[in-house]
Design a protein that fits this description.
Distance between the termini: 19 Å
Protein name: Apple domain-containing protein
Order of helices and strands: EEEEEEEEEEHEEEEHEEEEEEEE
Pfam family, one: PAN_1
Helix content: under 10%
Oligomer: single chain
Number of strands: 22
Structural class: mainly beta
Organism: Mytilus edulis
Shape: globular
């Protein structure tokens, strides 16, 4: 976990271990981790014509031309394949022109003459690597990394003081308080054995569907550091948080998974599941893997469910759904649900709405 203060970003391509092009961007006034890659933020380019007054682009973004999968794409114009002009591109696939078809994808293409070139004349070569670097003015985290006793670092953004700590803000038992000056800047992710590690946090009212966020089919906006820390710390979190470990689930030695909901920073329900014999990052959420629930009747012999899965009742957008029966809205019976879209029923208020849903793992 790191609160970055990134001043500049550099993009470079390499051929035979030699840098063949590079650009430097200012990172001021950016939010998402794609915003800096734009004409407005360009501070330097090895392509001398890119900083020429009046130069225009039909593409200058990381997303690029999404329809034909040209990414990190900086291009001057489309005039039919033989006359397309540009500077660099990452071809994630080849669709339309002879110059991007039949390559080994992704392919990193760069013009070789330090100015824009005509793609179809093969004025470009393919690089061996693309690298992105950041320039960060804050050394506080480096001090913590160099100190074997340091577990986390706090930073005062007003006085520029650096405070090293032997406690981890990832530990639910630790006391973490932030204000307008002091923030948790960095922490080592190593936790004591048998600790619960937060890997996903859902925040209500974001407008981004929780299920899509969990399975990774949508890109999440940049989250506050508070989203990575235990909910009980009461730090600001206005979006969902998703740890990349969810993308490599089957390769991890995850023993147990805990799901919890919080109201006013207090845990109001929780369940623990075994993660044995699971492949996908959704398989563990089932009655067969349930080992504990704060709902005591869920472990009663003979209890039945019409839904018990993360996918839930897809047509009506009920996710992480554990329900006993449908019998018409007035007699539906269940335990928990995440409503990703408007419910099909106007339920009586036998339930409350939580402030956060958190998923933890134990290795």
């Amino acid at each position: 976990m790191y609160r970055f203060m990134i001043l500049k970003v550099k993009v470079a391509m390499y051929k035979d271990s030699v840098m063949v092009m590079n650009m430097v961007f200012n990172n001021t006034d950016t939010g998402l981790n794609t915003d800096w890659y734009s004409q407005d933020h360009l501070a330097y380019s090895s392509y001398t014509d890119m900083t020429t007054f009046g130069i225009t682009y039909n593409f200058f973004s990381i997303q690029g031309d999404e329809a034909i999968e040209r990414r990190f794409y900086i291009n001057n114009n489309y005039n039919g394949c033989p006359f397309d002009m540009g500077w660099i591109a990452v071809f994630d696939y080849g669709f339309t022109c002879s110059y991007d078809i039949g390559l080994q994808y992704p392919a990193f293409a760069y013009m070789t003459n330090n100015i824009m070139g005509q793609w179809d004349l093969k004025a470009f070569q393919l690089a061996d690597a693309l690298a992105i670097y950041i320039q960060n003015t804050n050394k506080c985290a480096s001090y913590c990394l160099a100190d074997i006793a340091c577990v986390s670092a706090n930073y005062n953004f007003v006085t520029n003081q650096c405070q090293l700590s032997t406690k981890s803000p990832l530990d639910e038992t630790a006391s973490v308080v932030e204000d307008n000056e002091w923030k948790v800047l960095f922490c080592k992710k190593d936790l004591p054995p048998n600790s619960w590690e937060l890997i996903f946090r859902g925040t209500p009212g974001t407008g981004v569907k929780l299920y899509d966020s969990y399975v990774g089919t949508v890109s999440l906006p940049t989250h506050e550091v508070g989203c990575q820390l235990p909910v009980t710390h009461n730090l600001t979190c206005t979006t969902h948080y998703r740890d990349p470990i969810l993308d490599i689930w089957s390769s991890q030695s995850i023993l147990k998974v805990k799901v919890a909901m919080y109201k006013d920073n207090v845990m109001v329900m929780n369940m623990v599941f075994n993660n044995t014999d699971t492949g996908l990052n959704t398989d563990w959420y089932s009655p067969d893997h349930l080992v504990y629930s704060s709902y005591t009747d869920m472990t009663t012999v003979g209890i039945t469910y019409n839904f018990f899965s993360i996918k839930g009742d897809e047509p009506v957008g009920r996710r992480f759904y554990i329900n006993k029966n449908y019998g018409g809205c007035a007699v539906d019976v269940g335990w928990i649900a995440v409503y990703d879209s408007g419910p099909g029923c106007t339920y009586e208020n036998a339930f409350q709405l939580a402030d956060a849903l958190a998923i933890y793992i134990q290795k």
